[in-house]
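User: My instructor asked us to take a sequence, write out its structure as tokens, and then describe one feature of it. I'm not sure where to start. Here is the sequence I was given:
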Amino acid sequence: MSWLTEYKNSLKMSEVEEVFDIVFYRPLAFLLVKLVYHTNITPNHLTLTAIALGVTGGYFYSCGTGTSCTLGALFYLLFNIFDCSDGQLARLKKNGTPGGRLIDGIADYIAAVAIYVGIAIGYANKPGQPSHMIILLALSGISIIIQEALVDYYRTRFLDYVLERKNTFDEGMEEFRNEYKNLQNQKGKWFDKAIIWIYFEYSAVQRKLAVKRKGEKLFKASSGEYFKKNRIIIRFWVTMGPTAKISALIICSLFCRFDIFFWIVIGFFNAFAAILLIAQLQIDRHFISLQK
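Assistant: Let's start with the prediction itself. The structure tokens for your sequence are:
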């Protein structure tokens, strides 16, 4: 099997892959995967390494110097490469686990918190910095949370319709329950067991707080028709995914111009999200109108 074929097999559906991932991060991650493929290194090892890199990046950002900002950017870049590599290794070796996917998701949150807290500390400890920068940082954080929620929702919905998945949440929970039962019969694996148990507790609270879920989808549409109408807009949605912000932050960090990054997130990406929402609603109305 050629490297190109292996690389394609290591990717998700191309329509939901982020542009920066496909053209930069995932090719580098694939080279890393090839280096460790014949070793005992598992996807979880790569995920834990990614977490360490992200936290280290946050530490360097907290130092608040020009050199430390560059180092913070470097470690954040390495974090994203390792964060991409764990899933690629799991897909190629077919040894991914539900617990591993949970750890992978947690890694993103830990790294993001470490990076943004580090930037905030760096500003707080550096004399002469305008106080409004902390406000811009907070607004950027809120904007990113909303933007990522939108991207995740429409990406998940796209996959639900195209792959004809009935209920992603319930299907996922059933998979985690089966995995937890299997782990109960195995010695060790305490870390995987703990992660899945925490997820169960979190999901129970989430279900109590959330509005009652509807069993049916928003509207009826065939896989082919939904794909045809949404294949272009989903590519736009994923262009404003997390990797776009990571890349923008890394570039701005090289010049210690976090203010530019904040305005990119608050101004450009929020405006882009608003335009996409308007366009998406028009597409959704097309399917709703067919049912009347």
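For the description part of your assignment, you could build on this observation: The radius of gyration is 20 Å. Try explaining in your own words what that tells you about the chain.
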